[in-house]
Amino acid sequence: MREPKTIDVLLLILLAAIWGSAFFNIKIATYTYDPITLVFVRVFFALIALGFYCAYRNVKILAFSKDWKLYALVGLTNITIPFLLIAYGTNIVDSYLSAILMSTTPLSGTLLAHFFISNEKLNIFKLTGVIIGFLGVVFLFFDKLVISDSNIFYAIVILFGSTFYVIGGILTLKFLKNEGNENVSTSTILWSLIFLFPFCLYQQPWTNLNPSLESTIALIYLGVFPTGVAWMLRFHILTKVGMVFQTQVAYLIPIFGVIFGYIIMGEHITWKVLVSLIIIISGIYIVKRGNKGIKNL
Fold first, then answer.
1. 123: which strand partners?
2. For residues 209 and 13, is the Cβ–Cβ distance under 8 A?
3. Considering the entire predicted model, what is its pTM?
4. How does DSSP classify residue 179?
5. How far apart (Å, rounded) are the C-alpha atoms in residues 113 and 132?
6. d(C-alpha 168, C-alpha 180), whole Å
7. Which of 210, 238, 277, 290 shows its CA 20 to 30 Å from the CA of 130?
8. Average pLDDT in the 243-261 region?
9. Degrees to nearest 5, angle at CA 133 with 127 and 138
C-alpha cells in the first residue's frame, strides 16, 4: 500500500458523495415504487454493473460454490434486509435523517464486533466513542420537528437496517474475508436478488405499477452508482491505499446526505440536527482512534 495522494482524497470524496446521494434518490424512488420493487430493481442494476466489472477483471464468482450458504446468508443480512428496511423507512422520514441514522453503523459495528470478532475488542477509546455517538442519536430523537409520533417507528426501522449491515459485515469478516472483495460483493448481491425474486412474483408490481420518470431515473441511479459503481470505486481505493484510509468515508457520507437533503429535496434542517451530526461524527472519530495502540477492555 502507498501513502494517499491528492487523487485518492478526491476519489474518497467522490465515493462519499455517491453513497450520500443514495438517500435522497431512495426518497424520490419511493414516490411511485414500493420498497420490494425498488430494492429488486436496484440490486438487479447493481448486479449488472458488478458483473461486467468482474468479467473485465476475470474475477471468479463463487456464489454457488461449496460455501453458497455463507454467501446467501450475507446477501440476506447485508443487502436484502437492510435495503428493504431503509427503503421502507425513508418512504416516510426525510432523506437526510436516513443518512444520519445510517451513519451509526460504525458505532453499532464496534459494539457487536467486541462479542463476535476475536481481534476487535473494545477499549476505553472505542467505548467512549460508541457512547458519545449514540448520545448524538438520542439527542436527535428529542427534536420533535424531525422525529415525531408520526415517524418515530420508521426512524427505528432505519436503525434496524443499520444493525443488519453490521451483522452482515461481521459474518463477512468471520467467514468470507479471504474470498476477495469483488467476488463477495457480486456473489452476495446475486443471492440478494434470488431472495427478492419470489416476493416480486407474489406481489406482481407490474399489475398496478405507474412509475414516474423522476422515480425511475432515481431507481436506475441507485442500482448503477451507489450500489454498483461505488463498490468498484471502493475496491480501487482499498487496493491502492488500504482499509484505514477507505473507512474515513464514514465521516463524509452523513454530511453529503444532509447537504443533498437540504439543497435538492428542500428538507428542513434544525440546529439540533446539525449538533447531533457533529456528536455522531465525533463518536465515530473516537472509535477509529481507538483502533490504534490502546489496551483492550
1. 296
2. no
3. 0.87
4. S
5. 18
6. 16
7. 238
8. 82
9. 120
Q: Are 240 and 61 in contact (CB under 8 A)?
A: no
How many C-beta atoms lie closer than 10 Å to residue 291's C-beta? 14
| pLDDT higher than threshold 90 for residue 116 | no
CA gap 240, 4 in Å, rounded: 8
Q: Which three cell numbers stand for residue 207?
A: 399489475
Q: What is the DSSP letter of 278?
A: H
Three cell numbers written together for 79: 443487502
Q: What are phi and psi of 12, to 5 degrees?
A: -65, -40
User: Torsions phi, psi of 296, nearest 5?
Assistant: -70, 155
Write the pLDDT tens digit of every residue in 167-216.
Answer: 888 888 888 888 888 899 899 999 999 999 998 888 777 677 788 999 99
- The DSSP bridge partners found for residue 82 are none
Contact, 134 vs 104, CB < 8 A? yes
Q: How many residues does the chain have?
A: 297
Q: What whole-number distance in Å separates Cα of residue 80 and Cα of residue 90?
A: 16
Residue 115 grid coordinates: 462479542
Give the percent of the chain with pLDDT over 90: 47
- Are the C-beta atoms of residues 154 and 79 closer than 8 Å to each other? no
pLDDT value at position 158?
A: 94
Cell of 21: 446521494
For the record, the C-alpha cell of 129 comes out as: 466513542
Each domain of the chain, given as residue ranges in start order, spans 6-118+148-270
Q: Provide the pLDDT confidence category of residue 297 given band limits of 50, 70 and 90.
A: low
Distance of CA 239 to the CA centre of its chain: 20
Is residue 230 within 8 A of residue 15, CB to CB? The reply is yes
Calpha distance 85→81 (Å, rounded): 6
